[in-house]
Each structure stands twice: as C-alpha cells, then as structure tokens.
Amino acid sequence: MRKLQLTIPEPCHEDWNKMTPVQKGRFCSSCEKNVFDFTRSTDLQIIEMYNKNNSICGRFLPSQLDRELFYPKKKKSVWLAAVFFGMITFFNTKVSAQEKPKTEQTETPHIIVGKVAYNLENQDEEIAISGIVSDASGPLPGVNVIVKGTTNGTQTGFDGLYNIKAKKGDILIFSFMGMKVIERTISISRIINVKMEDSPVMLGGAVIKSLR
C-alpha cells in the first residue's frame, strides 16, 4: 500500500469569509476558482476527491497537511481464503492417510526445580496502549490514532476510547478535523489520555504525493 501525503506548495492568503458561497465550498474571485471545504472530510474522502480532479483548490486544517494520510486497508476475500484453506486441509489429510505410521522413541525430559525468574519486558515487543481522547466538551469520537511512520492506526469510539498495539519508544499521532495534531511518545504507562485543541485553517491548491 502506498504512503500518501497532502501538502500545499503555495498557500492562498485570500479571506475565506469574503468569498461567495457555492456548493461544497466557496468561489474565489481572485483566482476565479471554486475552493472546496475539506475541513470536515476524512483522509479517504480527500484521496477519492483528488483521484477525480487533482488540480482543485481547498480549505484544509493544518492537521490534515504534511503527514501520512490514513485510510483503511482493503480486506481480502474471506470466500477465497476459505476455499484455499479447504484445499490445503484436504491435501494434507490425503497425504497423511497414505503415509504409514512411524514409531518414534521419546525420552523422558529432565525436570528442573527452582525459583522462577522473570525476564524484563522486551523493548521490541508490542504492548496494548489505550486511553480516552477528549476536547473541551468531553470525549471525542472519530479521532485518528496512528503509530508514526507506519500504517498501524485506529479511531476512537463514541466514548472517545481507543486501543492500539505499539512498541515502547513509538510515537502516537492523534488527529481530528478542526483540531491540532498531537504526538505522544510511548514510555512506561500503557494508558495515554489526550485532550485536543482547536486549530486554524489553510487555503490553497493542495497536492497529494507519495512518500517513499
């Protein structure tokens, strides 16, 4: 899956409030173009819009720009997986039935008695992180939570709660329409609560580019 990023090479400094309202945005008389309002659009909706027309101007939140766009992976066909699994199972059963049983000798294992020593937690092992994301009004549903530099992400539920697996030292990115992007580094605590704050908006002709 390609990693995509939204950016505005040349931001527009026209006043949004002075533009003429049109469907899905406003008309800018200076550049004589419609400016679409994407401040309430999801990453997937933005990608779909730019696939249809990659030369449109838009109104965006800073939290939507200059970061990896988060969009769900396409699920593989469950039906094909079931058929494939069935074929493998049938083949293995047939081969096993044709093989003659083998006599194996087993040795009695030595039993070691003593105190149990607990190893320190592996730094590379994924751990379950959870928490509640809120704003000034309370719990905030639909917040994107993603591990920085990966496609591992999730969204908060109706109660603002999220759950995600990550490693110690990883950075969680919290983003939501109209809110500032917040980053939190995973350390000892497995509970990370976040309070979102309002963010300003940006205008201009945005482009979507691939991240290598």
From TrEMBL:
Q: Which Pfam families match?
A: CarbopepD_reg_2
State the superkingdom: Bacteria
Q: What is this protein called?
A: CarboxypepD_reg-like domain-containing protein
The record lists the organism as Flavobacterium terrae
